[in-house]
Design brief:
Helix content is 0%, strand content 24%. By secondary structure, the protein is mainly β. It has one domain (1-55). Strands 1-2-3-4-5 form a five-stranded antiparallel sheet, with no helix packed on it. A hairpin with a 4-residue loop joins β1 (21-25) and β2 (30-33). The relative contact order is 0.17. Bound molecules: zinc ion.
Length: 67
């Protein structure tokens, strides 16, 4: 499925972002990686199985782990 050498990391790998970019749509703010992961401009991701990964910005607008 992946024609690259070395092969791109699978969508469930921690380094999934390292996969090659197949399609880039900067005007729409997203890119499709070789492993089927869609990466959005805000660093959010959509996995091939439908799971959504929240954006991982260094600056958090809303604290998710505030005690
Ligand atoms: Zn690939």
């Amino acid at each position: 499925m992946c024609p690259h050498q070395p092969p791109c990391p699978p969508p469930d790998a921690p380094d999934r972002d390292a996969a090659r970019t197949l399609v880039r749509h900067p005007e729409q703010g997203w890119s499709l990686l070789c492993n089927g992961v869609v990466v959005f401009e805000d660093t959010g991701e959509l996995l091939p199985d439908g799971e959504a990964i929240a954006p991982q910005r260094p600056i958090a607008r809303s604290a998710t782990s505030a005690a």
